[in-house]
């Protein structure tokens, strides 16, 4: 396959380099187009108010001969430029490997998942992959996530995904031999406690830092439950966000309304 690889951690992040190495060694054609800096939690934003730049990367954590570009825009910008200008023949969009999980409602903020969404918008099968690294983890098992993705591509080629659907993949941060299977899951619930921190700078002025501590509802069958139990979570995400039961209710409610 011809694979476009992007992320939201930046073109020099270890996760995207590990994924690029795995893709190349598996024999797929690879193009990397990724942000020139950290773009985490920018969601599905597209840059409309200034020009965008795109340039080749001649050094960094990549193997010799790999086709790598940096972009000064968002992850979604990277996908648009890659598919419209650099490699319109791309078969599959792969976003990651993200440093940290994208579980539950994280996917609504995630630049990683949003880049895959942009791939779907532009008519390509797309996957987002994240490694569930905790802030205090001493080791980062990107090689585990890369191998998981390659096995998914072997068993479930991207071209067989239904139109408008992407896969959101979350991998526990453990060695491959400790992974307890791959589980199809639904989006779970992840709530952030103490989301806003009020602090003071050296001049005594107040500022705010948005972060928070995640608390998950560990319901079996969800993405958060799977990763917490050492399994890979694979969640199909549909771009049509219409809630159809409510749509039917609204039709019944407004049928007799006249203006």
Separation of termini? 55 Å
Structural class: alpha/beta
Radius of gyration: 19 Å
Mean pLDDT: 94
Order of helices and strands: EHEEEHEHEHEEEEEEHEH
Number of helices: 6
Neighbour order of strands in the largest sheet: 3-4-2-1-5-6-7-13-8
Low-confidence stretches: none
Q: What would you call the shape?
A: globular
Question: What is the percentage of strand-forming residues?
Answer: 25-35%
| Strand count | 13
Percent helix range = 25-40%
Question: Largest beta sheet, briefly?
Answer: 9 strands, mixed
Write up what this structure looks like.
The chain is an alpha/beta fold and 259 residues long. The chain has 6 helices and 13 strands. The strands form 3 sheets. Strands 3-4-2-1-5-6-7-13-8 form a 9-stranded mixed sheet, with helices on both faces. β6, α4 and β7 (165-172) form a beta-alpha-beta unit. The longest helix is centred in the middle third of the chain and has 14 residues, at 142-155. The protein starts with a strand and ends in a 5-residue tail after the last helix.
Summary keywords:
single chain; 259 residues; alpha/beta; 9-stranded mixed beta sheet; two-stranded antiparallel ribbon; 6 helices
Question: Quick gist of this model?
Answer:
The protein is α/β, with parallel strands linked by helices and 259 residues long. The chain has helices at residues 14-25, 75-86, 111-121, 142-155, 223-228, 244-254; strands at residues 2-6, 29-35, 54-56, 67-71, 92-99, 126-132, 165-172, 182-184, 189-193, 196-200, 206-210, 213-217, 232-238.
């Amino acid at each position: 396959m011809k694979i476009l690889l992007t992320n939201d951690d930046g073109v020099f992040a270890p996760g995207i380099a590990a994924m690029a190495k795995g893709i190349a060694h598996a024999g797929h054609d690879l193009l990397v187009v990724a942000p020139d800096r950290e773009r985490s939690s920018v969601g599905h934003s597209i840059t409309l108010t200034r020009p965008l730049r795109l340039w080749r990367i001649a050094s960094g954590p990549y193997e010799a001969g790999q086709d790598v570009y940096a972009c000064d825009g968002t992850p979604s910008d990277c996908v648009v430029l890659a598919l419209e200008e650099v490699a319109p023949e791309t078969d599959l969009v792969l976003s990651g490997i993200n440093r940290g999980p994208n579980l539950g409602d994280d996917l609504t903020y995630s630049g990683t998942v949003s880049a895959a969404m942009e791939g779907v918008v532009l008519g390509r099968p797309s996957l987002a992959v994240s490694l569930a690294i905790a802030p205090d983890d001493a080791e980062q098992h990107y090689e585990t996530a890369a191998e998981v993705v390659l096995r998914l591509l072997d068993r479930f080629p991207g071209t067989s995904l239904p139109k408008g659907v992407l896969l959101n993949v979350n991998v526990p941060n453990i060695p491959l031999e400790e992974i307890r299977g791959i589980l199809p899951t639904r989006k779970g619930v992840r709530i952030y406690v103490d989301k806003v921190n009020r602090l003071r700078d050296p001049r005594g002025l107040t500022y705010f830092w948005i972060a928070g501590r995640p608390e998950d509802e560990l319901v079996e069958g969800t993405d958060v439950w799977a990763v917490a139990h050492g399994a890979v979570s694979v969640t199909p995400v549909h771009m049509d966000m219409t809630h159809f039961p409510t749509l039917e209710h609204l039709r019944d409610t407004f049928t007799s309304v006249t203006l």
